[in-house]
Amino acid sequence: MPNPRCDEATFVELFEKHGAAKTAKILGMSERDIYDRRRRLEKKLQRQLTTPTPSHNKTRFAIQHPQRHIIEITDGVILVGSDAHFWPGYVSTAWRSFVRFAKELQPKVIILNGDSLDASTISRHPPIGWETRPSVEAEISASQERHSEVEKAAPNAERVWPLGNHDGRFETRLATVAPEYARVHGVHLKDHFPNWHPCWSCWINPDHDTVVVKHRFKAGIHAPWNNTMWSGTHMITGHLHSLKVYPFSDYKETRFGVDSGTLADVYGPQFVDYTEDNPRSWRSGFVVLTFRGGKLMWPEPVYVVDENTVGFRGELITV
Questions:
Q1: Chain-wide mean pLDDT for the chain?
Q2: Does any domain span residue 57?
Q3: Are residues 128 and 34 in the same domain?
Q4: What is residue 136's predicted lDDT score, i.e. its pLDDT?
Q5: pTM for this structure?
Q6: Is residue 86 within 8 Å of 193, Cβ to Cβ?
Q7: Domains contained in the chain, number
């Protein structure tokens, strides 16, 4: 709860000078309450409250994302999609179905779990041959258009965007070449998507049947299994585009490691050149998370069957 002895102006000054952990100690509050109050003030003030940047490594810490976003849900649905890699002029089957499911299910929360941007022109990888890539401006515009579609489909849903490695290219590039602009509006990805809450990870029901949603943790084909084994929680990740659910059981419980697939077309224009036309064990789709009594039910993938059809719960759905 907000500390009644601390007014808004004092809170902002403390937070931006000391960061969450030290502010919590000064005010005698938990870090979770600090982040909750920060989020409410950002909405009220219509600006981001930034944490101090350590002077020894300004580039690394220039991306202004709160570490965790906390969600409590007892009964309801959360949609998780990731790796859309939105491309100007192209809308994938998975994305069309994601918007449809958002409209029909009216989820309490929608999470786009990283890599909404592809940011191909500011990649650390050199271009291949004479390939043509869209500008950053065109990608931002396409992403804003796609995001607005799901916002209109489920206007009452809370919207969360854990940062992906491709998303991070936007701010990392600016922090590298122009760190003096760190506090100027427009240089942070969040400035262009004010209706989405940015974070590194989203923690759902952290005090009981914890579910962590973040873009990536472990790597390799067994990443979902290793993610839940090493984290000790249910974990939903993207990054690998594989769309699968791994249950993991020990003496205490069964928990799930989930790869939420890709909202892009597996053989879409984003991936044509760097994959060199190789086969890829990727799957287009997303994941429906259902909660009953605060407990996560078995995660359910929605998967693309063909250009106009997705599969869900044994049914074929035309989109």
A1: 85
A2: no
A3: no
A4: 74
A5: 0.76
A6: no
A7: 2
- Please indicate, yes or no, whether residues 29 and 112 belong to a single structural domain of this protein: no
Q: What is the pLDDT of residues 9-44, one digit of tens each?
A: 898 888 888 888 888 889 998 887 888 888 788 777
Domain range for 24 is 8-45
Residue 99 lies in a domain: yes
CA distances in angstroms from 129 to 156, 273, 280, 285, listed in the order given:
46, 9, 22, 31
Neighbours of 107 (CB within 10 A): 24
In this predicted model, what pLDDT tens digit does every residue of 215-246 receive, in sequence order?
Answer: 999 999 899 999 999 999 999 999 999 999 99
Mark whether 225 and 309 lie in a shared domain: yes
The CATH number of whichever domain residue 145 belongs to comes to 3.60.21.10
Q: How many residues does the chain have?
A: 319
Query: 39 in a domain, yes or no?
Result: yes
Question: Is residue 2 included in any domain, yes or no?
Answer: no
HEC string of 47-108? CCCCCCCCCCCCCCCCCCCCCEEEECCCCEEEEEECCCCCECCECCHHHHHHHHHHHHHCCC
Cβ neighbors of 178 (< 8 A, separation 6 or more) are: 187
Check whether residue 32 and residue 122 sit in a common domain.
no
Cα separation of 32 and 170, whole Å?
28
Closest CA to 119 of 138, 91, 93, 97: 138
Residue 137's contacts (CB-CB under 8 Å, 6 or more residues apart) are: none
Domain check: are 157 and 197 in the same one?
A: yes
Do 73 and 108 reside in the same domain of the chain? yes
Query: Is 52 within 8 Å of 17 (Cβ atoms)?
Result: yes
Strand ranges for the chain from DSSP E: 68-71, 76-81, 109-112, 158-162, 197-199, 201-204, 211-214, 234-237, 244-249, 254-259, 285-292, 295-296, 300-306, 309-312, 315-318
pLDDT, position 36: 84
